[in-house]
């Protein structure tokens, strides 16, 4: 039996040997998978644990994810408790010492970004609030710059041989990205000051970036679906402020926003939220192209 | 060969150790630098934000026509200022190393057509509790604290408190440490913990999809094996999830009893595998085997004493489906387990050797956010008894216990749940029992993370 296990283990390690050339990246969300590919190029082998059509708050700790966690060299996540319902289980059951919190293999984007909506008080009576602030930092492309820089550092620490690759890729990305942000901002200039409703409080970074004005979320409390009577009340309250559109993430249940869209007679605009959320958002650049385009289309 | 292997292992350990030490120093420095950077950035951003808000406020004050909007922004300014303070606070607080603490509050209201105090399952001695009580009664109030002990171990402590007509009973449900950083996919657990056999056994009951455990669990495992012992698991480095586990327990948890003097009174081995089929379907399957020795195990009020061994084999299968793999709005969960129980020993002094079978299958459907319905069928069949044991608890008198259960559940948030369950129960020696259970379960404190 022992011999069998040893030879089995040996066999597996031989099979996986070529993979040591690359860094195995376990990305919690598609945007971090895309960014990891931008910075890591061919040196990284990226697995995205979720798709753009899945709610990153509520992912099941599936066997396939545990298996992937086992062989990861680095885990790249949003952090700020976004993955609190599933990542701890994966980390525990994945039995991988390289990616535990506190090691170079554990990377949280939220640590590198100026967090918004940090709660002054913590109480579940306010809904599913995150103690670390609003975790949906990827909706503002400017946040990608500090995260990309830190990610390149982290990749270098894990894979010193690739230092030059990461450095060059980062420099190239930073130049391209800075120009792209400029472009999106020019296109989206007309959105400045536009009042909007949001389904869930997912858009605080986007709204801040484009200078829009969030009037209210449709959810009575974060993570709690609105009832029709709540929506009726909300409609009465906000109609004076003349919201122009409702922002909905592609993965969200659209019942509430549909109702509001019909009754307030404003468009509900489905935004990709992350890479792969909508068909036109199949790359990191495409994510913001699509976001800006969809917002502009809803305005006109 | 052996020496060569061990020196290679020692070298590997050395490499890992030295590598991680220097990496840790660099990591610390870089971490501090990063934090300073991000703090500076935050500060700059906050200043910018405040300036911008002030400008907006001036503009707003000038324009009297938009009075209501102005008021909103003024509160936004007020709310924006304390935020950075809250951000800086956690680093220096004295209790920031406190473990994640959570509590589970559970209560039920029971309506039974037959007196639950006389509950029995035809042909089986019961090691645990029955289906509940009439009227309002508390389930177990559970308190869990867990945290990393250091860079090698995590620790978890679970106390359950139950109210037995005014007498509070405290029960040490789990108290274990578990390795977090053994190499090679190994993981060791020591202490008192829920056994990993089967599927349901490793879950606390408040996480179940029904208000009570299946009959096979009730009869063969007294609702679940939880004992003091040690466990070693190995997770294969494959994309297909494959975990091997072996456990050894003192032998205090039904079907074992009092067998600690013989070393490990209960042992188990198991294999679990699982994967995704596309993005919408995932599954887990496994087989487990439990050997348990009992010395002077007393059950029932008489009591019935059993000396001997039990072998419980379990095969389980769980399949989940969600549109786009996003379970929030809708999802389906199918779950089934087949159990085989072989006992060999002396029951009330008479020799007995027989094999029993039990199984359940259940389907849970979340048809819209917050609402779930479920159906479960479970059954048991007892082996024959020798003439010396006719009329004893082991004698099922030809009855095959079975039960149909349906449930409707409302989850207001991830933290609260109300469930109504009805069971058409034919597990007693005679007659049908209609069982209604209305249950609430609430979680307070740390956000729970759910196993698959």
Short key terms for the protein model shown above:
heterodimer; A: 300 residues; alpha/beta; Rossmann fold; 2 domains; four-stranded parallel sheet; B: 452 residues; alpha+beta; Porin; 16-stranded antiparallel β-barrel; 4 helices; 19% helix; globular
Q: Your description of this structure?
A:
The complex is a heterodimer of chains A (300) and B (452). Chain A is α/β, with parallel strands linked by helices and 300 residues long. Chain A folds into two domains: 18-181, Nitrogenase molybdenum iron protein domain (Rossmann fold); 187-299, 3-Layer(aba) Sandwich (Rossmann fold). Chain A contains ten helices and eight strands. Chain A has helices at residues 2-16, 30-40, 63-70, 87-93, 144-158, 163-187, 204-210, 228-238, 255-264, 284-299; strands at residues 23-27, 44-48, 74-77, 106-108, 195-198, 213-217, 245-249, 268-271. The radius of gyration of chain A is 21 Å and the shape is globular. Chain B has two domains: 2-92; 100-445, Beta Barrel (Porin). Helix content of chain B is 19%, strand content 46%. Chain B is built from four helices and 17 strands. Chain B has helices spanning 2-62, 67-80, 83-88, 215-221, and strands at 100-112, 135-138, 141-148, 153-164, 167-179, 186-194, 226-235, 241-249, 266-277, 281-299, 304-321, 331-347, 350-368, 371-381, 402-413, 416-426, 433-445. A 16-stranded antiparallel β-barrel of chain B has the order 1-3-4-5-6-7-8-9-10-11-12-13-14-15-16-17. Chains A and B meet through α1, α3, α4 and α5 of A and α1, α2, α3, β7 and β9 of B.
